[in-house]
Amino acid sequence: MIRLFVLTFCLATAAAALGQGFILPARGSGVPDLIEHEVEVDISRQVATSRVHQVFENNTAATLEGIYYFPIPREATVTEFAMWIDGKRLEGEILDQKEGRKIYEQIVRRNIDPALLEYADHAFFRINIYPLPPGVKRTIELHYSQVNIYKGGLARYRYPLHGTLHGGRGTGPVHLHRDLPLEKAGGRTPPCRQRFEVNLSSGVPLKNLYSPSHDVKIDRISNTRARISYRGDRSESGGDFVLYYSVSHEDLGLSALCHREAGEDGYFMVLVAPPAEIDEQEILAKDVVLVLDTSGSMAGEKIEQARDAVTSCLNMLRSSDRFALITFSSTVRCLDDEWLSGPAARRRALKSIEDVKARGGTNIDAALKRALSFASEGRRPLSVVFITDGCPTVGITDVPALLERAAENSGSVRIFSFGLGYDVNTYLLDKLAQDNRGTADYIAPEENIETKISDFFETVSSPVLTDLRLDLGGIEAYDVFPAELPDLFINSQLLIVGRYRDPGRSTIELSGRSRDRTVDFSYGANFSAEADNDYLPRLWASRKIAYLLDEIRTSGESAELVEEIKSLSQEYGVMSPYTSFLVQEDEPMAAVLPDRGRRDTAPLSGDKKGAAFSAGGVRTESVSRHQAADLFAAPSAVGKAAVDASLQMKELRESDRFKEQPAAGVRRLENRTFHLRDSFWIESGYDGIKTVDVVHGSEAYVNLLLCYPELGRFMTLGERIVLRFKGVYLRIGDEGVENRSRQQWRRVLG
Q: Are residues 293 and 346 in the same domain?
């Protein structure tokens, strides 16, 4: 059985999906707040029995009335509907698409929540909501069945979530089910609590599990079962809930997703996952050097937690693993000159850790030199776990010299560095990790050292494949990240993103080392010519920007690198230390136009204030290193700002999903970027040319949407928008044409 707290199961190529239910208020009535939203689906033999649980609350002083609607796309095969309100079973009705179109027209004409404008081609399930007195909650549960289909072993689960979108001035639309903490009479609107849980089971082993939309928790129960869960509120993750999974009998799961706009190079993502269950003999025996800073600054709770962390790492070693234990302060102490293994050696190491005292300086150079003197034999992966809370104060203290000495001796070692507190040199620890196929992480003073390091070591304690190489066959790819692939571990997943030029079918080949042999895996993939996964461009752009920032950090700032970061940041709506998106109401501003590389201003046609607008409707400027510390970069390699900057860079470089940044005034829809300026959402690329102006909410606006319902998705931005459509820039706002029929629109736009 597959048990999902999502509403629909779609093909990887299907775009439509079921959306959440909503209430259209009666004339003169307000709307209740949606305060709870849970979705559950049980799937057995491809038949899904779904349950939607919604709780509405009347937080007004008046009695509210309305009609509950649930949108149904054409792709759904409905076998049964049932609804309960407050424990009573009530009958509703299913409206066909013709009737659904009337509902859509009502939504447009009444200027109801613009988020509903994406439902232009849906049928609806409808039921009257009885009057809801002040302070009363009402629970709605909707049950239905649907047949689901697999395609090519890859499936996409999608549950669209419309939300409260605000834009413009004036009375504004009637917003439905407010789920952000907005001020209102008598208090604040409560947030909407959301819960999604996915319990997957299959007769075929599950491989890749991936959500680009939500920060989900994934628990792999077995090779054929997994649980995916998300809990939060609407303000934390407002986008559709999307989940991909693949099934395969192969030992390794390989999946590819693509996105390509017409006439442009495409974006791809390759997912690689090992089985959830694996024989002990398939786990590679490894060599680990544990290096612990015991300088005087580690005294107190810090050294106690660090001892516990090293103890946990030692206890997680397998019988086939070998280890070395090094502690250092002004001098370096090594438990033994040779590799150690077995229970007796671990007991000896644990006893030595108990006796560690915090005193002396910080001799990072000598500690690294001793750690890197341990050589791995054969093909055993060799890792160094380096834990320190300070900058080098003894021996060689020059960071470039330290890195150069480490590079001379590192060989094929993986270095995983941990900085405790804020007095560490982030540049040193980051470069040690990046140059040696590892990762760097930082532990704030209030965080538990033992928990964070133990969780990391548990992840990397079971290597499956090392020395990975990826070949995309005949596909011409570029800007692929990560450029050097890390090792693959049990319960981990490798995500690779990049660009490709020409679409076509190809065979992806992945090779790696497993014990003393090279193993190869193949996967037939279609690098399509279709736009189907619009989150991929921003995910790629964030990793590209992280790569460019690393280049600046390593080689120094250059005009070319800075301009490329600015251009990417503006085009894809990704914040960077060299670009700030400033939303200002009255001040004229200028911007760097990414397609011209110069500063320019462009007036927005019809703007009463005469404010200047750029290609993206944003102010883009180079900022000082000190100002940039508030975003991603830091003026120094040491201190809290430096640690925060390093963690943000790591998130850009390694995150498997793009996190929206609403404070930046940037939104991306249908692979287009919009910037907020003087309450207008302006499509990136607009350079001040003449617009076709339409008054929001007018008869001309209504007929525009009824004639071209595909515009509804963009109207969800709000009441003031500038966007390109059919070769013309439309300006939706307070001024412009108010009366224009559908026939007239067809003559204007074709």
A: yes
